[in-house]
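Researcher: Here's my situation. A collaborator sent me these components and asked whether they could plausibly form a single complex. I don't have experimental data yet, so a predicted model of the whole assembly would be a useful starting point for our discussion.
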Amino acid sequence: MSSTSNTTTISTVGPPSRRNTELAMLVFAVIIPVFAYANAGLALSDEMPSGMLSYGIGLGLLAGVGHLVVRKFAPYADPLLLPIATLLNGLGLVLIWRLDQSRRLAQRAASIDQVYAAAAPKQLMYSAMGVALFVGVLILLKDHRILQRYTYISMAAALVLLVMPMFFPAKFGARIWVTVGSFSIQPAEFAKIVIAVFFAGYLMVKRDALALASRRFMGLYLPRGRDLGPILVVWGMSILILVFETDLGTSLLFFGMFVVMLYVATERTSWIVFGLLMSAAGAVGVATFEPHVQERVNAWLDPFAAFEKGTTDQIAQALMAFGSGGVFGTGLGQGSSDLIGFAANSDFILATVGEELGLAGTMAFLLLYGLIVERGVRTALAARDPFGKLLAIGMSAAFAIQVFVVAGGVMGLIPLTGMTMPFLAYGGSSVLANWALVAILIKISDTARRPAPAPAPSTDAEMTQVVRP
Amino acid sequence: MSELTLTVMRLGFLAVLWLFVIVAVQVIRSDLFGTRVTQRGAARRGAPDRQQAQQRQQATPPPQRQQSGGRGRRGAPTKLVVSEGTLTGTTVALQGQTITLGRAHDSTIVLDDDYASSRHARIYPDRDGQWIVEDLGSTNGTYLERTRLSTPTPIPLGAPIRIGKTVIELRK
């Protein structure tokens, strides 16, 4: 017995498996989107939406499958990751469905000669695929340390994934898509997981060299010149992405992730200082000559001038959506965020949240993202192996940076980039990649929280005690 | 659909969303694991029932008997206090349970002491409720006052029991 009441003994408490907590949270996480769906349907057409039952059952089924697989294959995993991911995915489906109902968007599609297809059923299909991928990762990835073997292969894979879009035509001003026939994916979404594997494997081996060999100057540890190599290479890569794919988001994501992992691996603040300086220099440098980036920066600096000139109305519309939402929002289905037009249900979906659920709702969403990141960081802290620690930190950082870049872009804090809100926004690549990311985090947290096997009885100690004179 | 219903649903939805966030944070709070530090000093009667039940199972003589039996007399110690060493200030209530001391992590008092053995000593009440200290074959020995223990010995109130750098005593 390790503790008694009234004692001050400091004792270790074994982590419980918490699967029932997860189940309860999951039920909650399925009910909320169904409620939101009913709410939006009532507001839009005065009647319960017809697909309500099937939608609820579909989401419940996906969540149930996910839960059963976690119960079987990762019994000690974190109890919050799956419910929060399910909730965000479900609410995303509701928001996309709500934007599907918009007459304005249908007219807009007709006016530019596009077939207006409802996005929600497709997104439901992507979600099912995402959960299938989640299940697949949980079953096939027996131990996250297996990924460590593929450190340099994943570097090559990440490079291929990042470079591929350069050879495909630009869509909407950015080369981030790979199009095969009618099917297109955003490889950067998958690259963020693959590259986290590479960074984790690489930094685990090199961190001592990067942390210890340094000179102290003005309170900062300056790394030796040759140790700057890796950060320079990654910086160069992200600048190249920015120049050739004109995608600020992806470039910021990879560089930011690398700097965070470098900081965590070496505990040297100087890397953050260098990272910030380098990314600022790079962004300013590129913005001076790349017209697409320039356009985005101008639209960010003065969204309403861009609105009047007609270059882009998205940011101004998004700002107005946030403004008209106020504190409690207009209510689901009662806003006019569909005025954003293009990409209203993908990059700009947060504006719909802002208008229809108001500040209160937006805060709740950001907190949900924060909770996922917190669980990721907590997993990293609890992980016993350095590779798992770095991988969990890297993926949480990627997730956090992505949320920051998108939310910041939509709210006008930073220039807008073409990235999607994880789980919430419409887009197959994003949903698939983020479910895979959550699956890996769950796997790491399962290993981290699994109680250590009982130590073998130390026969040596017993012997010496018996032999004692 | 009436304006009122929609307003109620809108605010209700926000409330439910926030409820989820709050419940999630509660889950995190109850999910903290690692070490548990129990309050010093003041007796906590509201300690988890599970713990109490465990205690009852493991207690050598059931606590009930302690209360009704010979324990009722005056001068019986009620707590064990660590008075020297890294755990100084730690107290354990004496409720009839056996207290094990040592470096093994399942000891009641886990000694972080180079001179302690993993199962160093135990302190338990005999049938009359007299507390006994017994050395469990430790390498460096257990000392009651200044004598090294060789047999289970009754502990006088306030007598220092020394294990390595740790000194514990029984107090009222």
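Model: Some features of this prediction you could bring to your collaborator: The two ends of chain B are 72 Å apart (CA to CA). Helices of chain B lie at 3-31, 49-58, 63-68.
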